[in-house]
Design goal:
CATH class of the largest domain: Alpha Beta
Number of domains: 2
Strand content: 5-15%
CATH superfamily of the largest domain: Histidine kinase-like ATPase, C-terminal domain
Order of helices and strands: HHHHHEHEEHEEHEE
Distance between the termini: 48 Å
């Protein structure tokens, strides 16, 4: 920083021989160094603490006292020469010294604050990334809790209606929970593994369905290795089984998962039983919307929900 200040000081001084410049440098360097040191102190103790009036007064004092000292030292060393045809008054010398000293302060402190600004920018980015990671962890935890609560509730009904199917259901539940634990440690999985998880979940749900319920799940995935945020598709599939099952009439659920080289589409459709009364929305859809904004913000996702008196459809488009 002092080297930069010195270059600026030498540039604005009147030209002379090399020995004369060296003598002037010997006078200017200690004053500039002292001024920069005091200015750093004022920046940290006054400006950064928002004591603007004190900082302005201190800076003015640094310039005036430093310029006064600079003129006195120059006069004592007999190194200030009169410019040809220029003024030789003390006011002129004082103004020249103050200008040189101001340039020294700017050049001496600017690199520090540029570096500090860059570091602050990267620190803010890192803090924002950590905040997003924390939010995603909380959202994943909500998905796991929501899934476990719904599944245990379904297994309770299965234990009353068909207790002989409980061992198979518990085994499938263990596999699903293992996948959830593994995927919660990852930011991305593959489309193929997520589709396999959905198939296993649908198989578990089908164990408790009555004979009047029909489930159709198809997956057309020519690019199964594409990355995908884990457990992102589950809430829409859960809603099908949560709202489509009635004691009478035909209950139908259709789930289609299709893929293009750059996108993924999940479409779900389920019948609505007669006299069905929708319950207030739980955590599933709000959690899904929040995670979509995190992983696929803005135009990278499109979620469409449509309900009629007899059917409920949902379509999710993702740009992978």
């Amino acid at each position: 920083m002092l080297v930069l200040a010195l270059i600026g000081l030498l540039a604005v001084l009147e030209p002379a021989g090399a020995p004369e410049k060296l003598r002037r440098t010997a006078v200017l360097l200690p004053v500039a160094a002292l001024a920069i040191y005091v200015h750093f102190w004022a920046l940290r103790t006054m400006l950064e603490q928002r004591h603007y009036a004190s900082y302005a007064a201190t800076t003015a004092g640094i310039l005036l006292s430093g310029a006064w000292l600079l003129v006195l030292l120059n006069q004592l060393a007999h190194v200030v020469q009169t410019r040809p045809g220029g003024p030789t008054t003390f006011a002129y010398l004082l103004g020249l010294a103050a200008g040189n000293l101001l340039l020294a302060l700017v050049l001496g402190t600017l690199p520090h604050y540029v570096r500090r600004g860059v570091l602050s920018h990267y620190q803010m980015q890192e803090l924002h990334a950590r905040q997003l990671e924390t939010e995603l962890s909380l959202l994943k935890a909500q998905v796991n809790q929501h899934f476990l609560f719904n599944t245990l509730n379904n297994l309770y009904g299965l234990s009353l209606a068909a207790p002989d199917q409980m061992p198979e259901a518990l085994l499938q539940l263990a596999g699903l929970m293992r996948y959830q634990l593994d995927s919660s440690r990852q930011h991305l999985v593959t489309v193929g593994t997520e589709a396999e998880y959905l198939a296993n979940y649908i198989g578990l749900e089908k164990l408790r369905l009555r004979a009047n319920s029909h489930v159709d799940f198809t997956a057309d995935l020519p690019h199964p290795d594409q990355p995908l945020a884990p457990l992102l598709l589950l809430p829409l599939v859960e809603n099908c089984f949560k709202h489509a099952i009635g004691p009478s009439g035909d209950n139908t659920i259709r789930i289609t998962l299709s893929q293009t080289p750059t996108g993924l589409t999940l479409r779900t459709e389920n019948s609505i039983p007669p006299h069905f009364k929708p319950t207030p929305s739980g955590l599933g859809l709000p959690n899904l919307r929040a995670r979509l904004e995190q992983f696929y913000p803005g135009p990278r996702h499109q979620l469409t929900l449509n309900a009629t008196a007899t059917h409920y459809t949902a379509e999710l488009l993702l740009q992978l």
